[in-house]
Here is the input.
Amino acid sequence: MSSSNSAASPPSYSFKAVSDDSAVELFLIDARMQLVARGRRELITEQPIGVYTLKLRAGPTSREEVILLDRNMTYPVEPLRFASAVPLNATSETHEYQQAAAKDLSRKVNVELGKGASIFVFARDWTPDNGKVRSGHHPAEGLTLCSEQGVKLVDFQTQSVTDMSGDPWAACRVSVNPGLYRLAVRVATGEYFEMTLTALPGYFLKVFLVQRDESASGRGRHPDLARASVLMSRHEEFDKDSEESRIAEMAKLALVDRRRVYGTEMNRFLTKKAENPMLGILGGHLLLLEKEVDTALLRTVVQNLRKILPTPHPDVEALALAAGMVTAHRFTMPPMLRASWQIVLNHSVHQPELVPIGSLAASLATLITQQDPWLIWCRPGAKRQIDQRQRGIANFIKEQLEPSLVQLMSKMILSKAPKRVPALDKLMGELNLPPSTVAHLVEKFLHHTKSAVPKTVSDEKAPVKRTVAGRAAVRKQTPPKRAK
Amino acid sequence: MAKTDHALVVGLSHYPAFQMLDGPVTDAEDFYQWLIDKGGGDVPANQVKKMISKPLNKKVSVTAGKPSSDDIEAFFVGLEDIANRNQKNGHGRQVGRRLYIFLAGHGFALTPGAGLLAANASITRPKFHIPGMDWANLFAMGLWFEEILLFMDCCRNTPTTFIPNPPGLQVARNADPARQCKRLYVFAAPHGRLALERKFGHVTRGVFSQTLMTGLRGAAANPATGEITSESLRGYLFNNMRSFLDPADLLRNEIAQEPALEPSTAETGPSFVIARVAVKNFPIRITPPAKTKGKVMNIRDGIAGLPVIMSTKSNGKPWDIQLPTGNYVVEIVGGPPLKTFIVRAGEEHHVEF
Here is the structure.
């Protein structure tokens, strides 16, 4: 190489990098760590001769490659192996034997509870050393399928097909009537973490879970709902090479990151996709992340989804609200996605009837956890813990409201018909709870007392050290690290 | 120039109602030291408000947790006194040149930004938090400062319950559209992710804070000028925080591998010089093949033109050098193909052919 220390301008070269992954972001960073070019799926630029870093990113997963740009080049980009609960090819946490088991068992019904819809659950463990140091832990321990009312229907620990060799897995396909169900995980502390599953006629719902080790916080080892992957298609058999599944996974990761990943090209793709409604739902939410929301496109997404889905889907109806469309749906059960729930909350300020008084959704609103993208709620082992949290909110309400409005809210619950009270709009927006929940809290804690509600006496006198929302106390062999 | 700078530094390791953290107090002390150091921020010490928690030796009521949200907000409210005084003296309401806000402790995601939980917060008292970005934006809108830097080392997961605590200060919007506040806001984690702390040697530090302080002490400086600019610090933080994480943590989806830089550069104004420091170099060992003995070995900087910055004759044995962060090329004239490498803070560097 000749010396380039002369004053003449250095030569520039064209650089092109293309990824087969539709949702991968590409960044070109110069030697001083400054971003000089970026793209979605492909990056085309012209830069001076130099050493650059090409960074690929999909959700939380990224990879860097160092490039000496000393000629025009088209750079081949290998697939980005991101972590996924789905044992897809070209992901970072999978074994071939788990892929084979998922494919094989997704075709066979293990439990018959009804007809017309199907829920396939595949819980597995994954370790880098392929289970050489075995936990001996059943991957579906504590995992159950419950009815909308919370009645246990399937115990996956006892009713799954299981293989405890290597990294263990458990698989169970349940034939069900179409409708809403609850997927629940009971952890070692006695708490239940739950999320909504929507079983639709003619569609095969597949849920994939990996293990999470929360031994340090006392919750033990258990299936991780937060990292759950939910696929929905008309094909019963699991396909490890499915491009749609891969895209759906990346869409899910992008939603968690609030990252605008999909460009116009992908948005058009989403409006045409009828085979995987979850992809359409996720895509709809990603559209809402754009700086300027293409409402017309969102309406098309919702209309297409409503056409292909035989019964109303709560997440689709939430997207309808966001698109300014009318919905007759009542959210008695929470939707699957947290982003969907936030839309419902925002609209419930002016349409309180969206979340009916006394509904499961209204009762769970104060139990929502910090997880994304799924809406996961936690039923504590002790009712006292529910009361503590709710009392804190009730006290805040009391500080903000005139007594007459407090009385009005308690009458609302007695009438079982939430009505909009414009004077309360601001408070409702701030609390981020449906009016039906707020009315219930007022009735429960404030209606009966003219004197002050006891301040959070229990946590003032005996403060409880709790794991803060989002903190992950990590136990490791090396000195422990903590999340803040 | 720094004599009119002001700073708030908060480190909360001890919470009556939450699990203790080990890093924030140390992180805050370190940032404070950099601020008042003449070779760092050079901010007058009496214009830096440092608030750190103290160990809880006995059961403390959550309402008595210190520093409380009111304590922290008192700093912001106190800036109004300075604004009023300046206005009275005919200097307008600008408080100073630059405002630094450093907040470390437990936190959660706001949209946008993050909330730092004060020591008097609890699960049932989520109102007692500091929305750092809201306060920074308030002063930016009023042009109380020409430059604002906000660093928040806390988690940004979605809160379980949320009660807002917006800034309770009225600030008039800056009337001169030609003058805009330049900003740099950096969060330890993107929305929805967790910020970690870990041991570095014997000391526990926030991963983000450790990355930040290494950068402010020279790793983020332009090697040619010694200047740390908002642009160079952004690039440094975005590309180096990963190397401060344990490799096992890189496999965990919920852990932040890069900080979040919000809002975008299009909204934060042009780049500005933060400090001029001694450039920090990092050790690199280059091991040439034995058969290259006698050949010229060049280190080329990866910037445009690939200029040669170091040269020696290979003796077939390891060559130990020091370089600042960046991309480079090793060239053995008449020898094997060029070898590229990246120098990052927080990593060991061995280049072999």
Summary: Chain A is about 30% helix and 25% strand. Confidence is low (pLDDT under 50) at residues 449-481 of chain A.
